[in-house]
Amino acid sequence: MEQRTLGGQGLRVSALGLGCMGMTFAYGGQDDTESRATIERAIELGVTFLDTADMYGPHTNEELLGSVLAGRRDEVVLATKFGNEIGPDGQGTGRVNGRPDYLRGQIDGSLARLGTDHVDLYYQHRVDPDVPIEETWGALGELVEAGKVRYLGISEAAPDTIRRAHATAPMSAVQTEYSLFTRDVEDNGVLATCRELGIGFVPYSPIGRGFLSGTIRRTEDLPEGDWRRNSPRFQGEALQANLRVLDEVNALAERKGVTPTQLALAWVLAQGSDVAPIPGTKRRRYLEENAGAADVTLTAEELEAIEKVAPVGVASGERYPAAAMRMLHQ
Length: 330
Known about the structure:
Blueprint: E1 3-6, E2 11-14, E3 18-19, H1 32-45, E4 49-51, H2 60-69, E5 77-82, E6 84-86, E7 92-96, H3 100-114, E8 119-124, H4 133-146, E9 149-155, H5 159-168, E10 173-177, H6 190-197, E11 200-204, H7 236-256, H8 260-269, H9 284-292, H10 300-309, H11 322-325
Parallel strand pairs: 3-4, 4-5, 5-8, 8-9, 9-10, 10-11
Antiparallel strand pairs: 1-2, 6-7
């Protein structure tokens, strides 16, 4: 698997990573045995950039990863996150917390669950509008100095916030949703800011939360307990409009001789050597399909055809319900 460099501090990752969230959180149907096998298969395939967060579960995702990585920690680049507040009862509060005292406690908890003495990449998961970003990032810089964290990142932040955080402590990666169906970062200054400052970019949901796989045609196709049942893009008229675009993407994939998933991932990978997407899956068969995208090269003509079918802003419906949308791009 190709290796890519994120940021100017030397962080090297596999070009394609693995988002582990769905193994224990948000998408229903937990199967720890298959999830463990998927992580192990990812490492075999060279997909060694693994992404988790304290909120996924909460805590159970990090615990799962820690159990799989016992004895092979040095084979992977491990990323986790803090900031979506978890209360004393171990449950999410629905708030964002960027206070230095909070994050210091969170990193220690993450390290214990992951069974390691350091995290390779530590993200601020969401920005706390009530805490100056300089306070949060000053504390994050101290974690790097202490050796608990090697590199720093932020998720779903506005350009000015990225700039201020990076000026406080060097940032290696910005993680934001990005796919053929979600190209906001090309239009809102986030991607341009990353490139101006020399910060790597990590797209999550690069398959459009599974939509670009072509396997979801109705809301009812989603499992019970799957949060996408409440996502505006997977409902009503928005879903129907998105399906019309998807059919055109599928036609391009068929012409190329690849799956729609592989076309979508190859497109993201083609956006620059500073981009390392982390498609999520909890099954080996999808992991192997995803990994195949690393061998797909798109010509200039094919990229142009994709651009015509899925330009910036093509998706119908917001990418999160209203309450979650308010937590983005602070």
